[in-house]
Amino acid sequence: MMTLLTDILTFNEEFVSEKRYEEFTTTKFPDKKLVILTCMDTRLVELLPKSMNMKNGDVKIVRNAGAVITHPFGSIMRSLLVAVYALQADEVIIIGHHDCGMGALNSQSLIETMLERGIKQKTIDTLSYSGIDLHQWLKGFDNVNESVKNSVDMVRNHPLMSKDIPVHGLVIDPGTGKLDLIQDGYEVLKSV
Questions:
Q1: 100 is in an annotated binding site
Q2: Is position 7 annotated in a ligand binding site?
Q3: N or C: less crowded end of the chain, CB within 10 Å?
Q4: What are the structural domains, with CATH classification, of the chain?
């Protein structure tokens, strides 16, 4: 029986043996000295870089659900700091998108689906008794523009982020690729 994993590994063997990787050869340092935090939405995989005139090797791209930074010392913020301090990124762009699944996310519905798929109520209860508010942790956002502004502010005001790094905020239309400016990091730097 062919599985998705088998298909991937079979294709990969041909990809490598035919040296199709050569067109993607670059370094670990972003040519445009930029790191982007964006959503993991499937519509953005190719659309986002193409809509920004970016190619392989131009930027570092960090993805998560909603392009949201939920904790100032979580893995997303760590990735942005590594991009700036170890991988030569000189600018940060946070890019949310319209019609984001995080905007419609219902934590109760998500927890119910977890239970239907075999997570035990006892596990949910144990997390709750331990002080973990799953509803808060799994909540989405009401307004993508505000969500982007919040993430931009968290990066800009982070105690470990260099104050000379412009942090921009954009929202992309996943249907057309149109970018809307939410926060111009250059303007903020000028006003400081």
A1: yes
A2: no
A3: N
A4: 21-104+143-190 (3.40.1050.10), 106-139 (no CATH)
